[in-house]
Amino acid sequence: MAQQPPKIINNRYRLGPELISGSVALLYSATVLETGESVALLLAEPPSRLDSIQRRRLLQPIQGLISLLHPHLLHVRDVGLDGSYCFVVTDLRGRPLRELMESGATPIKRAVEVVWQLAQGISALHTQNMFESDLRPERVIIEGGEHNITARVGDVGIRNFLWSLGYLDTSENPLLQLDPRYAAPEQLKQTSTGPATDVYTLGLLLFEMIAGHVPFEGRTPAETRAMQMSAPVPLLQPLRGQTSGELQFFIEQAMAKHPSLRFKDMNTFSQALVKLMAALPQQESNPPLQGHAFQTTLLDQAIDDIQSTRPKPVPPPPAALETLDFLDRETNPMEGQEDELDERTVQVPGRARLLVGQSERKKVILLNHLPATLGRADPNRKLSPDIDLSPYDPKRSISRKHARIIREGDLFYIEDLKSRNKTWLGELELTPYERQLLRRHDTIQIGLLELIFEY
Fold this sequence. Notes:
Number of helices: 11
Strand content: 15-25%
């Protein structure tokens, strides 16, 4: 902060030690002068360009939380101005979830219960149009003992409030920081966020509690961001053992890269958690969740919501599949072009390939050199992509340069090249020039042609 704040705030609160430090906002422990009660007090210094009326207007959303008494949210007790400072007073209670997690992986049912409780608090914040809560373990509050834990969301609109003052994410301000290990892909890309953003972060937190570490952490923040946006959710089984397929499926749905493929809102997420709790083995039994019937909207229904915009693929004509290339026959779609390959081209060890056609009638296109452009040849313009798909596309739905498959290290990616009829990876419509991770058995739709990626 630019100057040392006063010791007494609003003639009601005496500041104690700092809990979290920062250049534009600090979190203190404080004492209520009338009662001697301990509270937490956030002190923020808005930009000097904002007058008192503008500051009060920015305080209104978080001020509306004073009447919101929820068992899984820290209670906002007071909000106001003191000179050039804004202050927000909340309960001071419990300990950070990080302390509970420091001993290693959390019992699975306990982890599910904690995340379910947090989902209830987040759902209440969503009714106030507050999204993107800070759900790092340091900002989640835990109370109680081994058999009776209560979890509370510590960020009751505070990060949103600081953003509204015009302060952006910075490593010098822990209350503002957007840690790429705990951020949804849309936050990292700075695109539209909403309820599904918090669904992703809760799924990420559930993974960390069960596995004992975050799902994505690279050698640098930039590498972590890239993994968060494109890498698949790691399998829990090798990390923890005795984890069910239902648990893995639940976390993968919560952490789907595209928001449309996640649980559509926090209520749906919570219902699915209760169903998951009921399906888990009983040997790790914790006190059950009470009073919530479990029914859930699974991935198929989320897919149905976006499927109407995807054109139905058309099978390739039988003539195009007359010469069958089965998996034991190695044909190279780029044979004879080695002299034309530029320095970016890499040899691909293994058997990366695209499968064209259904059932036993499949055409196998080996991907021996990458990157490779997929498209439609145009002899009149003397244009030919690396892989010509025109024989399988009688409706001419594929652009001349439609999509590209890339390999970096051990990972494969696909990107749309601003094609006329779009590229789909599974049920996700690709944004032009935005890479998406390719995994074994992924379905790719290019125009009206459907392919399967194998490796």
